[in-house]
From TrEMBL:
GO terms for cellular component: extracellular region. The lineage of its organism: Eukaryota, Metazoa, Spiralia, Lophotrochozoa, Mollusca. GO terms for molecular function: peptidase inhibitor activity. It comes from Magallana gigas. InterPro entries: Elafin-like_sf (IPR036645), WAP_dom (IPR008197). SUPFAM superfamilies: Elafin-like. Residues 5-52 form the WAP domain. Signal peptide: none annotated. Pfam families: WAP. This is WAP domain-containing protein.
Length: 61
């Protein structure tokens, strides 16, 4: 998905279990987020979140 192209340093934090009863999209690119925040998915939400740095293994596998 071109929706979450990395533009700022760091990775999106892991998704929060149980989040997503209301689907809101508050950003589409990192440029729309203030400071160091990145545009990240979190369940059904897409919002500006503080990044994490370093190696992060995906929890989807």
């Amino acid at each position: 998905m071109a929706f979450y192209t990395p533009e700022k340093q760091g990775l999106c934090p892991p998704e929060t279990p149980g989040v997503g009863t209301i689907c809101l999209v508050s950003c589409q690119t990192d440029r729309e987020c203030p400071g160091i925040q990145k545009c990240c998915p979190d369940g059904c939400l897409v919002e500006c979140r503080n990044p994490v740095y370093g190696y992060q293994r995906s929890s989807r596998y």
